[in-house]
User: Fold DUF1064 domain-containing protein from marine sediment metagenome.
Amino acid sequence: MIDLVRSGEISRLEVHPKWEIFVNGQKICTYTADFVYWENSNYVVEDVKSQPTMTPVYRLKKKMMKAVHGIEIQEIGIVKRTKRRSKVSAAGMA
Assistant:
């Protein structure tokens, strides 16, 4: 991200910004994104997500950010690495 700021591709980078989510005057929760920045005059809210972090609570907060603040969260996925198993031939198992 720092390289993108230095190159001028994005600006006004913030790390872990927070939004309070209120409904009918009552605070429901706080959402914390990973990054916020401006790119080509667009305000971007970005969250890095892996499968284990895509919890029901996160999904609800994402929907509430859209409904309450009008903010669409951009998700950046993490690819899970798998261990490679060595191949054993049928002849080698005897």
Summary: Strands lie at 11-15, 18-23, 26-32, 35-39, 42-49, 73-77. Residues 2-77 form a domain with the Trna Endonuclease; Chain: A, domain 1 fold (CATH 3.40.1350.10).
